[in-house]
Amino acid sequence: MMRVGMSNPPYLLRHLDDFAAILRHPNVYEFVHIPIQSGSNRILNAMQREYTLEEFYECVHRIRSVVPNVTLATDIICAFPGEGEAEWRETMELCDHVRFPVLNITRFYPRRNTPAASMKQIPTEVAKRRTSELTEFFNSYRTLDHMVGEVHSVALLETAHDKHHLVGHTKAYVQVLVDPQEARLGETVTVVIMSTTKYSVVGRVLRRRCERLLAKSTMTARQINWRSLSVVACFVSAFAAATAVAIRKVHAGRR
């Protein structure tokens, strides 16, 4: 699987339809990182960004219309020089509107010999407050809870930071944690999502063929009690196998 790197709105807008089509390719993750930095056009202009808030929204809305499950990541710089309360509120409104699953929050620090370094700086206490406010807001919502019960095929290619779970990713590049007792590193497995956190989901491996077949049936994953699935599905499978053997014996006896 391939994951597309960071792309800015001016370049995306030139090829937006083609880019959305690429994300739908089976070998490309439905993930895109579009840095916005601020929700205020005045601040974007001060940053010398070559795009507007409206152009950013166009990228987001058009990509989501074609790839509904896309994972959107962005970056926000808090307390850029000249950012007043009105501009900061615009940034908060942007984040509230889009509800980014991935949000990289940075407090502005001046770099030597850059235009921003010579501008009047925002007081440190204000910068800290804005950074904390956005961080608290980001932690106040969850974007993965709807995935409970979904079935995904994931390649387990790394070990989690907890040094225990194996890690795979869904098509939308959502991190899936799998117990190493259920699979081996390097395997591609079918999992059902059992629980979620802010940043990842926990999957249970569907090893038995009857489980995988049931997952692909007309029943939706959320209609299945996955904790009792192994017992029920495999009982049905065993019953069907026993019935087939009995039928063959009956036919053999009639010959």
Please name the defining characteristics of this protein.
8 helices, single chain, 4Fe-4S, rSAM, alpha/beta, Elp3/MiaA/NifB-like_rSAM, Transcription Regulator spoIIAA, six-stranded mixed beta sheet, 255 residues, iron-sulfur
Describe this structure in words.
- With 255 residues, the protein is of the alpha/beta class.
- The protein has two domains: 9-141, Transcription Regulator spoIIAA; 146-225, OB fold (Dihydrolipoamide Acetyltransferase, E2P), CATH 2.40.50.
- Helix content is 39%, strand content 18%.
- The protein is built from eight helices and nine strands.
- The strands form two sheets. Strands 4-8-9-7-6-5 form a six-stranded mixed β-sheet, with no helix packed on it.
- Strand 6 and strand 7 (175-178) form a beta hairpin.
- Helix 2 crosses helix 4 (53-66) and helix 5 (85-98) packs parallel to helix 6.
- It is globular and about 65 Å long.
- The N and C termini lie far apart (55 Å).
- The model is unreliable at 218-223 and 230-242 (pLDDT under 50).
- Catalyzes the methylthiolation of N6-threonylcarbamoyladenosine (t(6)A), leading to the formation of 2-methylthio-N6-threonylcarbamoyladenosine (ms(2)t(6)A) at position 37 in tRNAs that read codons beginning with adenine.
